[in-house]
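Okay, any thoughts on this one?
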Amino acid sequence: KRKLQLSPEQCSNFYADQYGKVFFPNLTAYMSSGPLVAMVLARHCAVSYWKELLGPSNSIRARRTHPHSLRAIYGTDDLRNGLHGSLSISSAEREIRFMFPEVILEPIPAGQRARDYLNLYVKPTLLAGLTALCKEKPADPMTWLADWLIEHNPNKPRLQHQITEEEHQ
């Protein structure tokens, strides 16, 4: 999540695929007129899930056909529809890189690569955590396991600082 205000030039770059359309100047003017909140939704089928929550891009039509959608609730018209949603995974990747330039996006493994990743990295850690959970039998097992997984994350950077004899004294 990030709150920011885009300049008209940044909006032009963000909506470059809309360049040349009649509404383009109004779109960039509106999108640069005030602050916005950019967010990344991370979940299975995120693009289609978000599109479903958004509803139709025209807020007036959304109020008729999808009255509980976000655009029906927060939008005012076709241009000021309240929220943006990526059209595809590739546009989502491009838009995430635009809004969050410091983020490193890696491709999500699929098929055999996904199975190999799970077998090599996820299953051993999860098995150790579930075994420790069974031995411990805490009152709140979900919170305990979450804390255990954070503490025993194999990808967590570990600092090793050896104390010299001089520092010890």
